[in-house]
Amino acid sequence: MTGWIGVDLDGTLAHYDGWLSPEHIGDPIEPMVRRIHQWQHEGIEVRVMTARASRSEMIAPVEKWLSHHDMPNIKVTNRKDFNLLQLWDDRAIQIETNTGKVLTPREHISLEAKGWIGVELDGTLAHFEKGQDPKTIGTPVGPMYQRVREWLMAGIDVRLFTARASLPAMHPVIQQWLQTHKLDSMKVCFEKDFEMTTFWDDRGIHVVGNTGNIVVPINDFIPDHKYR
């Protein structure tokens, strides 16, 4: 099995009640720990995907915490790439692929306009067919496209949060698509940071903060890679 599952740290894998220091990380959230151990038992790579990794000096405390709680040798990152299968996070808003339908219940969605909102490209903002050429970007997904346009007109910082941005060769392709569809004010990124408030993604799994519970039933399957 290739590819990896990303798990957020604060509020998803570890209890979070507010920032104290880079060294302070809350107690493990057992349902999420059990999932990680099960995935690893099945031979699936798990990475902790956290905004803390946007600062190099904060990675070592996370690695130490993981080792202390029987989760050693897990990579700590803040970057999406083409091998990301799912991302479990209390800031994820689950979107149905190619429809723009919001799967996360309304009561778990906050539209507080602080920081920035991340929006996945393939399958969320643009139609995507498995195995399509990476240089091809599909037509806009109507409901999601409309949301993004409204957010931008309201002055909200909305960014394309896509693994494609990890490849410099993809940047002209993405920018041309954004310009064609009048979204060229959007920034493009593949890294999570402390200013991200939510991200809307068809591979994001919404986890209720500090509980490990998921709000949308999902099958116990590992998705295929999006990209060939």
Name a few traits of the molecule:
single chain; alpha/beta; Rossmann fold; five-stranded parallel β-sheet; 19% helix; 228 residues
| Helical run tally | 4
Number of strands: 10
Q: Tell me the distance between the termini.
A: 15 Å
Strand content: 15-25%
Unreliable sequence segments: none
* Helix/sheet category: alpha/beta
| Main sheet: strands, sense, barrel | 5 strands, parallel
Strand order of the largest sheet: 3-2-1-4-10
Count up the domains. Answer: 2
Oligomer: single chain
CATH architecture of the largest domain: 3-Layer(aba) Sandwich
Helix content: 10-25%
Q: Mean pLDDT across all residues, rounded?
A: 94
CATH topology of the largest domain: Rossmann fold
CATH class of the largest domain: Alpha Beta
What does this structure look like?
It is a single chain. The chain has two domains: 86 residues, 3-Layer(aba) Sandwich (Rossmann fold); 106 residues, Rossmann fold (3-Layer(aba) Sandwich). Helices cover 19% and strands 18% of the residues. The strands form two sheets. A five-stranded parallel beta sheet has the order 3-2-1-4-10. It has a five-stranded parallel beta sheet with strand order 5-9-6-7-8, covered by helices on one side. Helix 4 links the parallel strand 7 and strand 8. It is globular, with a radius of gyration of 17 Å.
Secondary structure topology:
Layout: E1 4-7, H1 30-41, E2 45-49, H2 59-68, E3 75-77, E4 84-89, E5 92-94, E6 116-119, H3 142-153, E7 157-161, H4 171-180, E8 187-189, E9 196-201, E10 204-206
In short:
The protein has 4 helices and 10 strands. The chain is α/β, with parallel strands linked by helices and 228 residues long.
